[in-house]
Amino acid sequence: MAGKDKEANSSNSKGKKKEVKKETGLGLSVKKDDNFGEWYSEVVVNGEMIEYYDISGCYILRPWAMSIWEIMQTFFDAEIKKMKIKNCYFPLFVSPGVLQKEKDHIEGFAPEVAWVTKSGESELEVPIAIRPTSETVMYPYFSKWIRGHRDLPLRLNQWCNVVRWEFSNPTPFIRSREFLWQEGHTAFATKEEADTEVLEILELYRRIYEEFLAVPVIKGKKSEHEKFAGGLYTTTVEAFIPNTGRAIQGATSHCLGQNFAKMFEINFENDKGEKAMVWQNSWAYTTRTIGVMIMVHGDDKGLVLPPKIASVQVIVIPVPYKDANTQGIFDACAATVKTLNESGIRAEVDSRDNYSPGWKYSHWEMKGVPLRIEIGPKDLANNQVRVVRRDNSAKIDIPMASLVEQVNDLLNDIQKNLFEVAKQKRDACIHTVNAWEEFAEALNQKKMILAPWCDEEEVEKDVKARTKGELGAAKSLCSPFDQPELPEGKLCFASGKPARKWTYWGRSY
Question: DSSP labels for 263-328?
């Protein structure tokens, strides 16, 4: 895209007509249903979300993507500040001694840790790790800062990057070697306080997905096998990608219990003068959120952005015909943008003269802008604008007199519609099963499966082993907080033992 822009802009006026013609080929070469992986790769590049970098698994986040991250960051940061959580920043580097201290925890990350072994030409005496997550970076200092019950709760968050090196199939936003996130790390005097915060944060993650990204998620608890290494329990918001039949962990909020407090000696004197260990949490969401949104809403024309997170909610395009009052049309476009901007709507005009209106339509559809406003001679004469929705291509003529009100209504409607459509598609993929045969069949049909389970780790490992194949093994996704009734005598789908809960299963990213 960038190259084409440059090429078009540098063309002389004689070549303009030819240039416009050449540019009408803008579009995707594959359909979402035909080759999802190829489609996704094209959408993130052509929609100007990312640019590939010369180190595998690392991506440049372009302003179109970064602005989405900033909108979510503004929301989340304000919410955690209301909870009296404070921002801080810890270094990127970790000494091996500290990293190895919490064995269970670091075993989960060991293959992914990147190491710095040289400085210039000289080998480092002791290699230094780059943080894959910051529990072991922060907690030695928690033990220093927490002495008595008056030092609690300690509630910190940092906005930063982390590096996780080892993996196959890097995918922009979904699986990358370096990614952006926030990570919260908190310490409390009691387990009750920690439990309360875990769920408060999880609700904020649900809101990011459902209210901002218009992606439906399921709130639940991870199994012992799937929980955060070294933690007590993990809660999650799980999303689902109908096109691939894969679930994706949207964001997690962990109660770490007292495991890390034991390792890092984070003790305090309670109000009775007794020595006690703190209860800790950690929680994070990442730029993966953006990838999930693209996968769920994108279509064969490119990105489809929910209005709440679109940096441009309305693109205004002049449509001057031969012998039309071109200046009048351009003035009307500028006035429209000004009116919308003043009312808090993020609008821009595309007044580039080296592209045809048709090419511009395709360009902004590719970038997923929620609403397009076209102004031509007829609109000018009738003191109206033509509005086209990105989500369903519906067209409507709006009088200038009620522009702001109607555009606001349309943006709200698009936001709601994107969520409803995504939820219907997701719900259509959920199958409830009771026996192994039904489970295997539903898995082959790329479903998200709700099944009664005995909650035994060996059984879960067995499910993974029995479903290993080309598409990857199935695993437990989460046990939903919203549990359907479990009839007496209900048996586990996989072991035939008495079932203890309903759990979602499926293939996952």
Answer: HHT-EEE-TTS-EEE-EEEEEEEETHHHHHHHHHH-BTTB----GGG-S-SEEEEE-PPTTS-HHH
Asked if 243 and 262 count as a contact pair (C-beta separation under 8 A), the reply is no
Tens digits of residue pLDDT in 373-425 = 999 999 999 999 999 999 999 999 999 999 999 999 999 999 999 999 999 99
In three state form, how does the secondary structure of 41-98 look? HHHHHHCCCEEECCCCCCEEECHHHHHHHHHHHHHHHHHHHHCCCEECCCCCEECHHH
What's the mean pLDDT in 161-168?
88
348 CB neighbour count, 10 Å cutoff: 16
CATH class assigned to 430-508: alpha beta
The first and second tokens of residue 342, run together, are 């003043």
CB 487 within 8 A of CB 498: no
The share of the chain scoring above pLDDT 70, in percent, equals 95
User: Is the CB of residue 452 less than 8 Å from the CB of residue 493?
Assistant: yes
CATH topology of domain 312-416: Rossmann fold (3.40.50)
Q: CB count, 10 Å around CB of 305?
A: 28
Domain positions in the chain are 59-297, 312-416, 430-508
Question: Sheet containing 122-130: which strands, arranged edge to edge?
Answer: 93-94, 122-130, 114-119
* pLDDT, position 19: 32
Predicted confidence at residue 3, as pLDDT, reads: 41
Residue 507 and residue 509: Cα distance in Å, rounded?
7
- The string of pLDDT tens digits covering residues 93-129 is 999 988 888 777 777 788 899 999 999 999 999 999 9
What does 142-192 look like in DSSP terms, one character per residue? HHHH--BGGG--EEEEEEEEEE----SS-BTTTB-SEEEEEEEEEEESSHH
Which CATH number does 59-297 carry? 3.30.930.10
Contact between residue 294 and residue 303 where contact means Cβ atoms under 8 Å apart: yes
∠ CA 321-324-327, rounded to 5°: 110
Confidence of residue 471 (pLDDT cuts 50, 70, 90): confident
Closest CA to 368 of 37, 23, 28: 28
How much is the pTM? 0.93
